[in-house]
Amino acid sequence: MRRRYKVQRTAAAPTPRQTFILITHSNSPLSISAFPPENNNIMASRDHIPSQDSDRPFKGDDDGAVEAQTQAPMQMDQLDGGRYAWQSVIASFATLFIVFGIQTSYGVFLAWYSKHDFPNASTTQLTLVGSLNPGVMFVSGLFVGRIAETVGFRPVMAAGCVLMTVGLLLASFATQVWQLALTQGAMCGLGAALVFFPGVSLPSQWWLKRRSLAMGLSMAGSGVGGLAVVNIATALLPSVGSAWTLRVLAATSGVMLALATVMAETRVPKRTIANGGRASALIDFELFRDRRFLAMVFASLVVPFGMLTPYFYLPTYTVAIAQSTPAFASLLLTILNVFSIAGRIISGAVADHIGNINTYILTTVATGAVTLAMWLPAGTSQPILAVYAAAFGFFSGGFVAQMPPIMAQQFGIAKLPSILGLMYAAFAAGNLAGGPVAGAIVEASAGSTVFPSLQFGWGILYTGLVWIVGAAGAMYLRFGLLDSAVWKAY
Question: Which three-class secondary structure state does DSSP give residue 21?
Answer without folding.
Answer: strand
